[in-house]
Structures are given as C-alpha cells and as structure tokens.
Amino acid sequence: MSNKDTRIVDIKPLATPNEIAKIYPISDELSQQITESRRIVENILNGTDHRLLAVVGPCSIHDPDAALDYSDRLKALSDMISDQFYVVMRVYFEKPRTTVGWKGLILDPDMDGSYDIEKGLKTARSLLIEIAKKGLALGCEVLDPIIPQYIDELMSWSSIGARTTESQTHRTLASGLSVPVGFKNSTSGELTNAINAIKSAAAPASFIGINKDGQTVVLSTKGNNAGHLILRGGDKAPNYYEDDVEVAKKKLYDAGINPAIIIDCSHGNSRKNFSRQKRVLRNVLDQVLWGEKAIRGFMLESNIFEGNQPICGDKSTLKYGVSVTDACIGWDETERILVHGAQLLKKAERYGGVMEVL
Ligand SMILES: O=C[C@H](O)[C@H](O)COP(=O)(O)O
Ligand SMILES: C=C(OP(=O)(O)O)C(=O)O
C-alpha cells in the first residue's frame, strides 16, 4: 500500500497563467496605464506626490456585475477628488479566514464549496481587465503564492494581511511582486512582525513557484523597496490615533525604514463596526491636516449598500451590492466622506498644505 498523498482526495490539472492570459490578454495601452499608476502609488508612498492613497472598495468581490457597477461609481468619484486622493480600488479575491469560511472568488467562485478555481482565476482576470480599462488603479490582497502569476500585471498595489505578515512565504513572495506591498500589523495589534516583513521583503530572495507556462521553477527576486506599514488595529484596541502613529514611526525609524503608513479604517480600527470607519477617517485626515507626513494613505471597506449578509448556499438569493464578508459602508456614505475629506484638504492648501502645527 502506498504511503504517498494519504490526505489528498483529488488532483486536477489547472490552466497555466499563459493559457488564461491568452484568453484574457491585456493591451499595451492598458499595460502602460498600469505602469503609470504604479509609479504614482510609489511616489505617494515615498512622499514625492503630496496626495493620499485611498484604497477603497468591497471587503471581498463575489459578484462581478456588482463589482463593475461599484467601479463605475468609484471611477467618477476618483476623478472628482483626484487632486487630494489617488484612489486604488480594493479588488480582493482572496480572503484569509480566522478559522473557516468562504475563501474568496478565486478559490470558490460559486460559493458552494465546489472550488472551481480555474473559473475563479478566469473571472478574476477578466474582471480586473474590465475595471482597469475604466481607468482605475487596482489593489489586491496577495495570499496564495501561485495566484500572482495569473493576475499580478493588473495590480497597482497589494497588501499582505494581518494573518500572513509573519510568514516567510509571503515575505519572499512580496520581494518579487511588481507593485508596492503594504504589510498589515498582526491581529494582536503588534507591529514588529509587519516591520520585520518590510525589511525581509526588501531583500532579494529565491523560492519555489511556477512560471507563466506552469512549470515548477525557482524564482529569484530583486527585493521590494516599496514595502510599507498598514495600521489596521488589533484585537484589543485600535491603532490609528496620533500616539499610535508616533510609536509606529519610531519603530520604523529604529528599523532603518523611512515611515510610510496607511491607516486601515476598518478591521481592528473600526472594531469591525462599519459605521465607525468614518470617525477613523476623520481622525486620520485631522492628523494629516495638522502636519503628519508619515501617513500616506488610508483604506476603507465600502460597497454599494452598507452592512453584510451571510452566505447561504444559493448565491442567487444574495442581496445585490452587499458584502458577504466584513460589513462595509454603503456607496452614499463613501461618496460623502471622501468628497468632504478632499474639500478639507483642499481648504488647508491655503495654509501651505497643512494647518499650522500647534
Ligand atoms: O477582511 C476580512 C476578514 O476580516 C478576514 O478575512 C477574517 O475574517 P474572519 O475572521 O471572518 O474569518
Ligand atoms: C483581511 C483583511 O484584513 P486583515 O488582514 O487586516 O484582517 C482585508 O483587508 O481584507
């Protein structure tokens, strides 16, 4: 009796990145647009572009039609506020779960445990192309180490989540990504893992992966010098306040890293209460208005309609435009707080970009 793969119940072949890219190719023009949006994101993170990065969008994408509808609204809004905020749409297809739960559109597009991953990859790639064609920059959480080979050319920003920031696999993966990578602090609220991750990902690495033809290869990377910290709050307390930012800045400086911080207005910072996101944003903008330069952006979990809903097996019964993972703010509120935030920052330009620091 064989003792190989004793817990594997099925092995299926999967189309290679090149095969899927052939069905959903990207034009030179789109590729150029994405290169330019990556440059803008990098400039915001390194402080040469004064705007704030606004990573805004659903907690997770489960309905491509709703995602397109959302992206139309976001594109119009992003044009209105582009002098203060550079908007990157959260197009999150992979969900890291605390224990069990739906793991996102790529792994389980039918949301019924059938794990039609090839369908998920195709849906994700074609949706990213459709949204990018509208002129929006896109950001994804990178969780599975193989998936970037299928979609990474479409991203302008990415993040490594709180549950994976400490993982060497994710740090080396980040070292080879073509986009700036934000590392979230740990779910406990602890910052050291994310700071170590920024250092680790900046170094060249070699690891096992696949190439675009699906062959197992050793990938050797240059290192990613656009790693930055995302403060997402922790189990016990938020960490978006001025004192928290001071602590984070000091830790980054002590580690030899130039502070570039994004504040996640959701998760631990909203204590998972979506309606608190606006007060986090208000506080973040207040810090920026009083001269805090290390804050380079913020993240909002937003959808067409507020709240969330459980996944119930039959996806046709789901409410349109409502999150199936963390609760989000709705579109009207998203528009209101972003327009208002941009107006506040604009007003401050009168005083040389910031209010006088007391
Ligand atoms: O952003 C999404 C969730 O917070 C993350 O995936 C964890 O979710 P869970 O605790 O519901 O599994
Ligand atoms: C999973 C996410 O966040 P975190 O890793 O902070 O829990 C997310 O931003 O979707």
TrEMBL record:
<dbReference type="InterPro" id="IPR013785">
    <property type="entry name" value="Aldolase_TIM"/>
</dbReference>
<dbReference type="GO" id="GO:0009423">
    <property type="term" value="P:chorismate biosynthetic process"/>
</dbReference>
<comment type="pathway">
    <text>Metabolic intermediate biosynthesis; chorismate biosynthesis; chorismate from D-erythrose 4-phosphate and phosphoenolpyruvate: step 1/7.</text>
</comment>
<dbReference type="GO" id="GO:0003849">
    <property type="term" value="F:3-deoxy-7-phosphoheptulonate synthase activity"/>
</dbReference>
<dbReference type="GO" id="GO:0005737">
    <property type="term" value="C:cytoplasm"/>
</dbReference>
<dbReference type="InterPro" id="IPR006218">
    <property type="entry name" value="DAHP1/KDSA"/>
</dbReference>
<keyword id="KW-0057">Aromatic amino acid biosynthesis</keyword>
<dbReference type="GO" id="GO:0009073">
    <property type="term" value="P:aromatic amino acid family biosynthetic process"/>
</dbReference>
<comment type="function">
    <text>Stereospecific condensation of phosphoenolpyruvate (PEP) and D-erythrose-4-phosphate (E4P) giving rise to 3-deoxy-D-arabino-heptulosonate-7-phosphate (DAHP).</text>
</comment>
<feature type="domain" description="DAHP synthetase I/KDSA">
    <location>
        <begin position="40"/>
        <end position="337"/>
    </location>
</feature>
<keyword id="KW-0028">Amino-acid biosynthesis</keyword>
<dbReference type="GO" id="GO:0042802">
    <property type="term" value="F:identical protein binding"/>
</dbReference>
<protein>
    <recommendedName>
        <fullName>Phospho-2-dehydro-3-deoxyheptonate aldolase</fullName>
        <ecNumber>2.5.1.54</ecNumber>
    </recommendedName>
</protein>
<dbReference type="GO" id="GO:0008652">
    <property type="term" value="P:amino acid biosynthetic process"/>
</dbReference>
<comment type="similarity">
    <text>Belongs to the class-I DAHP synthase family.</text>
</comment>
<dbReference type="Pfam" id="PF00793">
    <property type="entry name" value="DAHP_synth_1"/>
</dbReference>
<dbReference type="InterPro" id="IPR006219">
    <property type="entry name" value="DAHP_synth_1"/>
</dbReference>
<keyword id="KW-0808">Transferase</keyword>
